[in-house]
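Appendix B. Raw example, untouched.
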Amino acid sequence: MATTFEEMVLQERNRLVAQITDIEIRQRALQEEMALVKRELSALDAYETAKAGKKKNSTGRRTSRQDGILQLLQGNAGGMTRGGILEGLGLKGNKSGEQSISNALNNMKKAGTIAVRDGKYVAA
């Protein structure tokens, strides 16, 4: 049975769409894996801080949020969207965590720690 040109184009389009879907699934899995590794790294940082006996300031939680955001942005030179930051910190879908990140981003922007370029947050 002869295949028409239109049928060949349709088959190729379907193949490419399936390939894109597969890549997106793998990309999400890698992002989840990266978020897990970054959380583990953050836990190690917290352990080292506690072991060294450093005192937390009264805004210790906010500072650690801001430190986590800054580390994430420094590792992504092209910048990140708020959604990307939430995913990178493993807080996507956590309403209080998302609000905490939004507050931290606003405070960091005001303090000049970060900037917004092309709709993405970057380390200043």
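End of appendix B.
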